[in-house]
């Protein structure tokens, strides 16, 4: 059975920087949980960051790939460099995915770790820009297909394709 790595905050775990969850109401997540397919993971907490913690963003104008290559940093709102923790969390997420046999991930968008299609712009002004977080980028680099929580239907279709070779239909209910 193919498993999915899922951002722990989407499952109701209070692991976000502000100590809250970002619970995602989804029939698919409920079904996958019942089927024991979900591998919950928070890269930031996995790396040892506290709950709550100051918010962090990739430097303005930089990308996750540049962070992974050592050419850019992730900084907290007070200016402290937390790049090492974010890189450690990304590596731990890849290890968790491989250990569980996960071939796809559903991640919390806009996060400097888990953003799939967008992240904050690094100004700490609440502005969003297209891009990935470092965990999403590293998972993708290792062949794990990543989806934001807004594309769970597409993740379900991708899982169906993986399991059936493109044949048959499955629905959440």
Features of the shown structure:
single chain; 173 residues; alpha/beta; four-stranded parallel beta sheet; two-stranded antiparallel ribbon; 32% helix; disordered C terminus
What's the structural blueprint in terms of helices and strands?
Layout: E1 3-7, H1 27-34, E2 38-41, H2 43-46, E3 56-58, H3 64-68, E4 74-76, H4 83-100, E5 102-107, E6 118-120, E7 128-130, H5 134-141, E8 145-148, H6 152-164
Protein architecture, described:
With 173 residues, this protein is an alpha/beta fold. It has one domain. The chain is built from six helices and eight strands, in the order E-H-E-H-E-H-E-H-E-E-E-H-E-H. The protein has a four-stranded parallel sheet, sandwiched between helices. Strands 3-4 form a two-stranded antiparallel ribbon. Helix 4 crosses helix 5. It starts with a strand and ends in a 9-residue tail after the last helix.
The fraction of residues assigned to DSSP E strands is 15-25%
How would you sum up the major sheet? 4 strands, parallel
Rg (C-alpha, Å): 16 Å
Amino-to-carboxy terminus distance: 19 Å
Number of strands: 8
Instruction: List the uncertain runs.
Output: 168-173
Number of helices: 6
Shape: globular
Kindly give the count of domains.
1
What strand line-up does the widest sheet have? 2-1-5-8
- Reading the helices and strands in chain order gives EHEHEHEHEEEHEH
> Which structural category fits the helices and strands?
alpha/beta
Q: Helicity range of the residues?
A: 25-40%
Mean pLDDT: 95
């Amino acid at each position: 059975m193919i498993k999915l790595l899922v951002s722990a905050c989407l499952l109701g775990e209070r692991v976000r920087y502000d100590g809250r969850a970002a619970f995602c109401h989804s029939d698919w997540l409920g079904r996958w949980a019942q089927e024991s397919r979900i591998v919950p993971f928070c890269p930031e907490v996995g790396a040892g960051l506290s709950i709550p913690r100051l918010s962090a963003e990739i430097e303005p104008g930089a990308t996750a790939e540049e962070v992974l290559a050592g050419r850019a940093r992730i900084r907290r709102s007070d200016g402290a460099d937390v790049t090492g923790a974010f890189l450690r969390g990304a590596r731990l997420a890849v290890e968790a995915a491989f250990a569980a046999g996960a071939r796809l991930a559903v991640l919390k968008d806009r996060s400097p770790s888990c953003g799939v299609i967008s992240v904050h712009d690094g100004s700490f002004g609440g502005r969003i820009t297209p891009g990935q977080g470092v965990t999403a980028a590293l998972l993708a680099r290792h062949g794990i297909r990543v989806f934001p929580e807004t594309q769970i239907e597409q993740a379900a279709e991708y899982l169906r394709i993986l399991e059936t070779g493109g044949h048959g239909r499955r629905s959440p209910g």
